[in-house]
Automatic annotation (TrEMBL):
InterPro entries: DoxX, DoxX-like_oxidoreductase. The chain crosses the membrane at residues 21-40, 60-85, 92-111, 183-202. It comes from Alcanivorax jadensis T9. This is DoxX family protein. Keywords: Cell membrane, Membrane, Transmembrane, Transmembrane helix. It is found in: Cell membrane. Its main location: membrane. It comes from the Bacteria. Belongs to the DoxX family.
């Protein structure tokens, strides 16, 4: 490949930077409904949320459950709206990232990485990690064998005693592992927004910044 062709490709890629505002916009539009939905679900069943935050046996066992439940609910609801508007974006990502860290530590960490448990060790994304000795990857592969056996047994029971085509019409049966995968992904997306902001043109942050930067 000639140097001229390489420079041409590089030049074309550089010209796409004029559309760089689309990347933070996509992150905001992805995250906003996730946060609003999470906050709304907590709000409409707030008493249950408080009980789950505070219960030592089947909940999180956190201190001051009413206060923490209120803060989590308000952060997710307000944060989702601000992300949607592109307003105070870098500021709101901080409490949202903290919320994701708390969720990972208190809710998801004990279940490992995967949100949906892999059911086939041969195709699990943990396979290449296990081959290089990555911590926890081998345990994930062993767990996927157990998950696969349970799913196979469940499908047999449903085929024999239930309307299996109707039950799986909207999607395959899975085992919800509830690991840190989704919360970690949201944290990374918020981290990008923290450093890069809401983006140009399609955010209130951009227009307020332009307004404030104009000389009087």
């Amino acid at each position: 490949m000639s140097n001229a062709l390489l420079f041409s490709i590089h030049d074309v890629l550089n010209r796409t930077r004029s559309l760089d505002f689309l990347a933070p916009l996509a992150l905001r539009l992805y995250l906003a409904p996730v946060m609003i939905s999470a906050g709304y679900n907590k709000a409409v069943s707030f008493d249950s949320t408080v009980a789950w935050f505070g219960n030592q046996e089947w909940g999180l066992g956190l201190p001051f459950p009413a206060l923490l439940a209120f803060l989590a609910t308000a952060t997710e609801l307000l944060g989702g709206v601000l992300l949607l508007l592109g307003l105070l974006t870098r500021y709101i990502t901080l409490p949202l990232m903290f919320t994701m860290l708390v969720a990972m530590a208190t809710v998801h960490w004990q279940h490992g990485w995967f949100a949906i448990a892999p059911s086939d060790p041969a195709t699990s994304t943990a396979l290449p990690l296990a081959q290089v000795g990555f911590p926890g990857a081998q345990a994930s592969l062993e767990n996927s064998e157990a998950v696969g056996e349970r799913l196979k047994r469940a499908k047999m029971i449903l085929r024999e005693h239930g309307n299996y085509p109707w039950l799986t019409e909207k999607g395959n049966l899975v085992v919800l592992n509830n690991g840190i995968e989704f919360a970690a992904t949201y944290f990374i997306m918020l981290l990008v927004l923290f450093f890069y902001g809401a983006g140009r043109y399609l955010s209130l942050d951009y227009w307020f910044a332009r307004r404030l930067s104009r000389p009087v």
